[in-house]
Amino acid sequence: MSTGATSAPAIRFLSVDFDCADPGELARFYAEALGLPVIYSSEDFVLLGREGSPGLGFLWIADYQPPTWPDPSRGKQAHIELGVDDLDAAQARMLALGAAEPSFQPQPDRWRVLLDPAGHPFCLSTHGT
Question: I need a surface site. Which of 29, 97, 99, 110 has the fewest CB within 10 A?
């Protein structure tokens, strides 16, 4: 650590960005699920969030290949944890919005793993609520 007079630069967390084939469609899924508005949109990137808070971004990748979780051949890359009060109701809502349910569920009584429309795994959990 430096003891000089210079201070550390301010670094802010802006967003978590997901690669995908269709940013608009994946943004629609998460906007509906989380109640977040679109704060920026272009042909190849959509950002959801609220001014002054970190957001979720969706970036178009030409040759996007979804994760193959739980098969490790194409790892999950990243995932988000969503806190819910009722696992069954939240799972039903996410499935209705376009999520898919993989056959492997490590601990379905504690959390549920689902796949968003681009194949990214995400978890529903009652922990932290």
Answer: 110
